[in-house]
Amino acid sequence: MATAAELKVSDVFWKPGGPPWMRIKGAIEPTEFPVLTEEDTTRLAHSLMRERDWERFQDYPERDIGLTIPDLCRLRINVYRERGNICLVMRLIPLEIPTLDELEMPEVLKTVAMSPQGLVLVTGPTGCGKSTTLAGMLDHINRNRKAHIVSIEDPIEYVHQDKHCIVSQREVSIDTESFADALKYCLRQNPDIILIGEMRDVETFNTAMQSAETGHLVFSTVHTTSASETMERILNMFPPSEREQVAVRLSRTLRAVISQALIPRMDAAGRVAALEIMVVTPTVRKYIEDGRASQVEEAIEDGGHWGMQTKNQALLKLYADKVISAEEAMFNAGNYTQMRQILQRYDKEQADVAAAAKAREEEIARKRRAQHRAREASAAAAQQQAQPPSDQPAQPASSGQPGSQRPPGSSAPPSP
Q1: What is the pLDDT of the chain when averaged over all its residues?
Q2: I want to staple 318 with a disulfide (CB 3.0 to 4.6 A). Which of 61, 223, 323, 330 is the partner?
Q3: Can you tell me the distance from the alpha carbon of 3 to that of 376, in angstroms, rounded to the nearest whole number?
Q4: Strands 166-171 and 271-279: what pairing?
Q5: Is 77 exposed, middle or buried (0-12, 13-18, 19+ CB in 10 A)?
């Protein structure tokens, strides 16, 4: 694990019949360590569990574990069976929580994090960095507010130290039986901010909305890829007869939806987050209340002054900043055709700007050459005028005048 941490590996895979594998910068690569046997992975899994958890694993072969390797990293471990063999996947989590600035997140996330109350959802597929973004937002609160933060996680990933806040982190199956139980009793613990690791059922979501309605700031995650899909997912969790009421409640409690994806950098230095950000404005609130999830994206596209952006707008900015390639932008776009058109339009605009700049430079160079020639001509004329007139040769005197001199060697005229 020391090697993995040094290489900034995100995940390590342990499976019998081959060496451990590592995910580095999004790609999975085999290591040069020895081939693992079934006994190796079984012994490793057993060593990571308490005896009662190991016994339970024999009947329910799925287990999440969180642990810390001092001075190295924290691990989120999933243990499972594959064709009868025990396998493990370990997610490496830094001990130091990255700030939102270090994560290169938009400033609006700081504003959202400092909301006095409401529901904030961070969405995206597994492995897209949702936990890291949430950790950065909670750390921002921890540095800038005086409050009580209660997190309910399965398992605990980032460990928060008390700074300006008291942080109580509860792990499902160790500190509480379930998300629902933890949420039920959470309100008696006088929290200001509540983090729910994942919205898994109607009961959890109902309790989360209730917490937001009673003046708490609630953070959670959903496995969706956009704000509009998130709205539809939430409403479809409930029976048709309840959806209208749920839409009204959601419109009043929701503060923001941040949908995230990790895109490979063009310089191969890792991955960068591309975020769709929806802030609940009066217009967005009306769309949610009316159940018009499909119109939310239009509001996001036009809501730049609120800090909102669509995923395509985020991808375009990363492409314009030369962080990601055009191929990655199109591959990760929600709408491939639209993204291709956006990139083509941007490239044409940039080409036009470059051509105009080149034309201006050539015009400036032409004027400078003309001015230079004019200065040279002016200097030459001034130099010519400044030169003194050249000496004129002496004229010979007339022959009949007294004192006139004869040319050398000439004879005197005859006497009269």
Answers
A1: 90
A2: 323
A3: 69
A4: unpaired
A5: buried
Q: Is the pLDDT of residue 113 over 80?
A: yes
User: Which residues are within 8 A (CB) of 373 and not within 5 positions of it... i.e. 6 or more apart?
Assistant: none
Strand partners, 66: 76
Residue 211 reports pLDDT greater than 70: yes
Residue 395 token pair: 């004229």
193-196 and 148-153 strand pairing: parallel
Query: For residue 141, what pLDDT band results from cuts at 50, 70 and 90?
Result: very high
Taking Cα atoms as reference points, which of 299, 291, 292, 338 lies closest to residue 315? 338
Q: What is the average pLDDT across 149-163?
A: 95
And the tokens for 406? Answer: 């004869």
- pTM for this entry: 0.81
Give the separation between CA 349 and CA 338, rounded to whole angstroms. 16
CB of 54 closer than 8 Å to CB of 47: no
Confidence grade of residue 416 (pLDDT, cut at 50, 70, 90): very low
The answer to whether residues 225 and 128 touch, using CB atoms and an 8 Å cutoff, is no
CA distances (Å), 98 to each of 129, 136, 138, 148, in order?
12, 6, 11, 20
Q: Closest Cα partner for 62 from 41, 86, 42, 46?
A: 86
Average pLDDT over residues 26-35: 92
Asked if 209 and 249 touch (Cβ cutoff 8 Å), the reply is yes
- Spatial separation of the C-alpha atoms in residues 143 and 162, rounded to whole Å: 9
Give the percent of the chain with pLDDT over 90: 69
